[in-house]
Write a structure and sequence with these properties.
22 helices; alpha/beta; binds guanosine-5'-triphosphate; about 60% helix; two-stranded antiparallel ribbon
């Protein structure tokens, strides 16, 4: 794009010192290198704030000037670029430019360097600074204006050819690499008369330069290199400024066009000359070059560029990273509190990309290799910071997903263990999808983070929980089944054994078989809900069957402790002996056949004991899988061993005999009781008194009242206490009588006991009650004590028996 070429006459360089009153970017000059060879720390500030050129990226140019002292260098630069460098006072002829000055061209992004002239009188013969400044100019400027008088052309020393030779040599050694951008050497011939055409002068100079190049000590690998490999030459002549001011002005104007007008065929700032240093990095670059030159370090230009790129990229990276870190730090606290941040991945990804973009905006202008390396480094640095968050997120996610799994499973179960496998799978799938979705979304796209290990750990744990839940649910199902089996077996077996029908074992096994069938159906159905394999179902069913078998055995065994067997035998015996065929309690009278019913009852009980001795069902009734089980014990069918059976029969026989004796005694009591009482009353009262009582209304009333009181005592259940009192009174009375009369009271006591037994029998036959022993040992039953009245019908017979047995077992223990 063409730039406007400002009118030279408008430029602020007319004064002797070139200063103008109004300050513009071009007016701001900086001594980039001072006389003490120190590089100014202010250059970046000037680039940014005074020249406004720091943000131009690559879109700027650098031009420097080289030449003998007081050859009008500053004048030329001011004329061409509108700068404000000091120009020597015509009168004093003192050196004006000390060190290296920098300024910006007016109306163009061109950095202009005014370099102290060679052959500096003040520095004497010391060419050190001249070489350094010349080398510096060649290293950093795209265009080096070589300013010389026309009459210096062809003069080796006058044209600074010796100095150039040294500079070329060091430059070649230190800074030039294959592919380095070329530098333009722009020879401006001052006080050009035109007598010798510029082309001829150019040819002379070119020849001189090539000769110099040929004489250089070239470093290895560059022996065959040509000067044109590193430099391009331009030539221009400027007429005498004092003697031909108009021509000077015109030619200067033309020359200016070659620096400003990009459309000009002779435009000087060709891209090939650009050093590819971004404007904001130029101060560091220039300083680094200067430092290396001053300290004479053996560094080449590309290395310098890399150093600069590293320095700048590090700086850019730091700024971009700080911004990035500031953005992401808010997530740390939340993650450490255990939260799962669903948007973490998306948001951090955004900050990550923004940071890279910021880095690219400035960093991409620097050495590509270094930039790419630093970019990767930057990405790695951010990824490392984010990976910490990623791991924390996965940890939180792990817990959260497990909770989700537990919650969802609990919701689905809600006390119902059916279809457990389906509910478990759905819950697990939900938790795993949740985990995968968040874990994937948290990943940084650029990073190759591997969350597989974390996910595998999560899956292991969820499987452990699932297994545990399955065991628990299965336990509940099997527990319910156990209850069902227990309920279905224990009570019916107990009832059947109490009833003791002849086919008791067959009926028990029918119960067992039906229970097993129901349980197997239920278990198979439940296990199908657990997605159990066929073999697992088979094993569980087999286990259940054998447990049921063991339960039945245990139940039978518990029903055949001695006390229970004796109880059943006694019950069977009493059923026959003490009750008639209609279930009415017998009252034995004189002349009744006691022996017959006794023998029949005893035989019946004996038959029952035989029935109980051994489980009597064919093995074919049994489930084959139980019989085939290695734990199956064939002796399990023997319930009572012969010795135990015999022992029980003996014990029962004794009890039966006692009952028989009691029955016999009750007949005697029934016969003796009333006549003795009558005669006793007659003896006590006498016939006359008896008649007197009956004839006396008061006595009759007293007798009636006594009868009523007796009836009331009987009705209120106070009989025993009253009898006890009466017994004690009678006993005491008898004792007193005995003591006083010396008579035996045996008969009186015997009669009294007989009367008491008679009363008990009378009670059992005349009242709808059933005598139940209370807290008594069976062998002591016949003592006649501790009898409790329980209304008949309050318990079933089996229940009554069970109750009696229970009390008896308690007594036994
Ligand atoms: N003969 C002649 N003199 C010039 C020309 N241009 C400038 N001068 C004069 O030369 C003197 C030195 O000019 P400067 O521009 O200061 O020269 P310089 O090379 O920058 O001087 P230093 O910075 O001191 O090395 C001044 O007095 C100018 O007027 C020119 O084209 N021809």
């Amino acid at each position: 794009m063409s730039q406007t070429v400002p009118d030279i006459d408008q430029l602020p360089n007319a004064s002797a010192n070139g200063r103008e009153s109004s300050v513009t970017p071009a007016d701001a000059r900086l001594q980039a290198v001072n006389e003490a060879q120190e590089f100014s720390p202010d250059m970046l500030d000037y680039m940014k704030n005074k020249w406004n050129i720091a943000n131009r990226g690559f879109d700027y140019n650098v031009v420097a000037v080289f030449g003998s002292q007081s050859t009008g260098k500053s004048t030329l630069l001011n004329r061409l670029f509108g700068t404000n460098f000091d120009v020597m006072d015509e009168v004093s002829r003192q050196q004006t430019t000390k060190g290296i000055w920098a300024s910006k061209a007016r109306d163009a992004d061109v950095l202009v360097l005014d370099v102290e002239g060679t052959d500096g009188r003040e520095r004497g013969e010391d060419q050190d600074f001249e070489r350094k400044s010349a080398l510096f100019s060649i290293a950093i400027a795209e265009v080096l204006i070589v300013n010389m008088w026309e009459n210096q052309v062809g003069l080796y020393n006058g044209a600074n050819m010796g100095l150039l030779k040294t500079v070329f040599e060091v430059n070649l050694q230190l800074f030039q690499q294959k592919g380095s951008p070329k530098t333009c050497l722009f020879f401006v011939i001052r006080d050009f008369t035109g007598v010798t055409p510029i082309e001829n002068l150019a040819a002379t100079l070119t020849k001189d330069l090539e000769r110099i190049w040929a004489g250089l000590n070239k470093p290895p690998g560059k022996e065959a290199s040509l000067i044109s490999d590193f430099f391009e030459f331009n030539f221009a002549g400027l007429p005498h400024k004092v003697y031909a001011p108009e021509n000077f002005k015109n030619e200067a104007e033309k020359l200016k066009g070659r620096f400003y007008d990009r459309q000009n065929p002779a435009y000087t700032f060709k891209p090939a000359f650009h050093k590819h240093i971004p404007a904001d990095g130029f101060p560091q670059f220039a300083e680094a070059i200067w430092e290396k030159i001053v300290t004479n370090r053996d560094l080449d230009l590309p290395t310098q560029q890399q150093l600069l790129a590293q320095y700048r990229c590090d700086e850019i990276m730091r700024v971009a990273y700080d911004t990035f870190a500031e953005h992401i730090k808010k997530y740390r606290v939340q993650l450490e509190s255990g939260k799962v941040l669903e948007g973490l991945g998306k948001e951090t990804q955004q900050y990550y990309l923004e940071a890279i973009e910021a880095f690219d905006a400035d960093g991409s202008r620097y050495n590509k290799e270094v930039y790419q390396k630093k970019r990767a480094e930057f990405k790695e640095k951010m990824a490392t910071a984010l990976h910490v968050y990623y791991v924390q997120q996965l940890r939180n996610l792990h817990k959260s997903a497990l909770n989700l799994f537990n919650e969802r499973l609990a919701e689905r179960m809600k006390g119902d263990d059916s279809e457990f496998a389906r509910k478990l799978n759905e819950s697990r799938q939900e938790a795993m999808s949740y985990y995968s979705r968040i874990a994937e979304a948290t990943k940084l796209h650029d990073a190759d983070w591997d969350g597989d290990e974390y996910q595998a750990q999560f899956e292991i744990e969820i499987e452990e929980i699932a297994t545990q839940k399955r065991i628990e649910a299965m336990g509940r199902v099997l527990g319910k089944l156990d209850s069902f089996i227990t309920q279905s077996l224990v009570e019916p077996i107990e009832v059947l054994l109490n009833e003791g029908p002849n086919d008791v074992w067959k009926r028990i096994f029918v119960v067992f078989r039906e229970t097993l069938a129901s349980a197997e159906r239920e278990l198979s159905k439940q296990l199908a809900g657990f997605e159990s394999s066929d073999s697992e179902i088979t094993a569980q069913v087999q286990k259940m069957k054998f447990q049921a078998w063991e339960l039945m055995q245990k139940t039978i065994k518990s029903e055949f402790v001695d006390v229970k067997v004796l109880e059943r035998l006694r019950h069977r015996f009493e059923q026959k002996f003490r009750y008639d065929s209609d279930g009415i309690p017998r009252v034995w009278s004189a002349g009744d056949d006691i022996d017959g019913p006794f023998s029949a009852a005893r035989d019946d009980a004996d038959a029952l004991s035989q029935l109980y001795a051994k489980i009597n069902v064919p093995e074919s009734e049994l489930d084959p899988s139980i019989v085939e089980d290695e734990r199956f014990d064939p002796n399990a069918f023997v319930v009572l061993s012969p010795a135990r059976l015999q022992n029980l029969r003996d014990r029962f026989k004794r009890e039966a005999d006692l009952l028989f004796v009691e029955a016999k005694r009750s007949i005697v009591t029934n016969q003796v009781g009333p006549s003795k009482i009558f005669y006793l009353a007659l003896c006590v009262l006498g016939w006359n008194e008896l008649l007197a009582v009956l004839s006396n209304p008061y006595l009759t009333l007293a007798a009636l009242l006594s009868a009523v009181a007796g009836y009331a005592i009987w009705r209120t259940g106070m009989t025993r206490p009253v009898l006890n009192v009466a017994r004690a009174t009678l006993k005491e009375t008898a004792t007193q009588i005995s003591e006083r009369t010396g008579l035996s009271i045996e008969g009186v006591v015997t009669n009294f006991r007989a009367g008491a037994v008679g009363q008990r029998l009378e009670r059992s036959t005349s009242h709808p009650s059933f005598p139940v022993r209370k807290g008594r040992d069976l062998n002591r039953e016949h003592s006649g004590d501790e009898v409790e009245m329980v209304p008949a019908g309050r318990m079933s017979e089996g229940g009554l028996l069970a109750d009696r047995r229970r009390r008896a077992v308690q007594d036994e223990y």
